[in-house]
């Protein structure tokens, strides 16, 4: 069973979810609708979601609603992912960065479920847009089968968020 590549894909997707937040009416673009799309590619698999909602537009502190991420997330292959929390993001608009407080995700492949958490995940804005790319991070296993890796790592830029 190729569990690790699928888990890496989902972990990266989780990173994207945590960083995801809508845009704001600022020098960085037009008024946003507090929606965010995400894409993550890892180990040959891709996970995506569209139109997740947030409590505000960046650069305000905001929370991404996990139920709206979970309702549209899909992954290639036979893996599935569930975001277990609604992450909060803070932005430093001058530096072009964002930080998510906690990403808590459960990945399931076949009959094996693994849960992971990543704290203080960093994101970097792409130029003057409201698109963000993840910084490298490691998520630690919080529960699951003995078949689950004890941690998973997301490479820099393996996840992206686009606020609209």
Question: What does the model show?
Answer:
By secondary structure, the chain is mainly beta. Helices cover 13% and strands 48% of the residues. The protein has helices at residues 3-19, 66-70, and strands at residues 35-42, 45-53, 62-63, 74-75, 79-83, 88-92, 97-109, 112-125, 131-134, 137-144, 151-154, 159-163. Strands 1, 2, 3, 4, 5, 6, 7, 8, 9, 10, 11 and 12 form a twelve-stranded antiparallel β-sheet that branches. β10 (137-144) and β11 (151-154) form a beta hairpin.
Features:
single chain, 164 residues, mainly beta, twelve-stranded antiparallel beta sheet, 2 helices, 12 strands
Q: Regions with pLDDT < 50 over 5+ consecutive residues?
A: 5-27
* Overall pLDDT: 81
What Rg is obtained from the alpha carbons, in whole angstroms?
15 Å
Helix content: 10-25%
Taken from the alpha-carbon principal axes, the silhouette is globular
Number of strands: 12
Give me the oligomer status.
single chain
State the helix count: 2
The assigned structural class equals mainly beta
Sheet of most strands? 12 strands, antiparallel
- N-end to C-end Cα span: 38 Å
């Amino acid at each position: 069973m190729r569990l690790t590549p699928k888990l890496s894909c989902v972990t990266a997707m989780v990173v994207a979810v945590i960083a995801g937040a809508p845009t704001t009416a600022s020098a960085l673009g037009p008024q946003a609708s507090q929606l965010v799309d995400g894409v993550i590619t890892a180990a040959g698999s891709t996970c995506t979601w569209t139109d997740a909602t947030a409590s505000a537009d960046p650069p305000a502190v905001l929370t991404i609603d996990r139920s709206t991420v979970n309702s549209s997330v899909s992954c290639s292959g036979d893996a599935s992912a569930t975001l277990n929390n609604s992450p909060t993001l803070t932005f430093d608009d001058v530096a072009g960065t964002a930080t998510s407080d906690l990403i808590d995700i459960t990945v399931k492949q076949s009959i094996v479920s693994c849960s992971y958490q990543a704290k203080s995940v960093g994101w970097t804005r792409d130029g003057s847009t409201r698109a963000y790319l993840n910084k490298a991070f490691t998520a630690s296993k919080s529960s699951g089968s003995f078949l689950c890796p004890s941690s998973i790592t997301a490479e820099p830029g393996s996840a992206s968020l686009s606020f609209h």
